[in-house]
């Protein structure tokens, strides 16, 4: 099971990113746990300055803007 964290203040792009990840995981049949991290100090501890950020199993894979669906799928399949 992959641990996915969406870093952001809870803005529309952050919510869209979380929904996109959930949809892609469901379509691919990949089991994930999804956590929304809204604490700015915790977000900064990842080195992310632009949100939304995406962390998979402890590794930052994206920061700033909603990622493309094919990008999300490649992260989940890796």
List low-confidence stretches. Answer: none
- Strand and helix order: EHEHEEH
Strand order of the largest sheet: 2-1-3-4
**Share of residues in helices:** 40-55%
| Text of the CATH class | Alpha Beta
Number of strands: 4
Query: What Rg is obtained from the alpha carbons, in whole angstroms?
Result: 11 Å
> What is the assigned CATH homologous superfamily?
Glutaredoxin
Question: Do you know the CATH topology?
Answer: Glutaredoxin
Strand content: 25-35%
CATH architecture: 3-Layer(aba) Sandwich
Shape: globular
Largest sheet, in brief, is:
4 strands, mixed
* Through-space gap between termini: 12 Å
Secondary-structure content class: alpha+beta
Helix count equals 3
**Tally of separate domains:** 1
Task: Give the integer mean of the pLDDT values.
Answer: 96
Written account of the structure:
The longest helix is centred in the first third of the chain and has 17 residues, at 12-28. The chain has one domain (2-73): Glutaredoxin (3-Layer(aba) Sandwich), CATH 3.40.30.10. The model has no long low-confidence stretch (mean pLDDT 96). The protein is α+β, with helices and mostly antiparallel strands and 78 residues long. Helix 1 (12-28) crosses helix 3. The chain has a four-stranded mixed beta sheet with strand order 2-1-3-4. Strand 3 (53-56) and strand 4 form a beta hairpin. The protein contains three helices and four strands; from the N terminus they run E-H-E-H-E-E-H.
């Amino acid at each position: 099971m992959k641990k996915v964290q969406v870093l952001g203040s809870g803005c529309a792009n952050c919510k869209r990113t979380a929904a996109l990840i959930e949809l892609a995981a469901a379509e691919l049949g990949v089991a994930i746990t999804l956590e929304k991290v809204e604490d700015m100090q915790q977000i900064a501890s990842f080195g992310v300055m632009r949100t939304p950020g995406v962390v998979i199993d402890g590794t930052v894979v994206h920061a700033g803007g909603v990622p493309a669906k094919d990008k999300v799928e490649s992260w989940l399949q890796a």
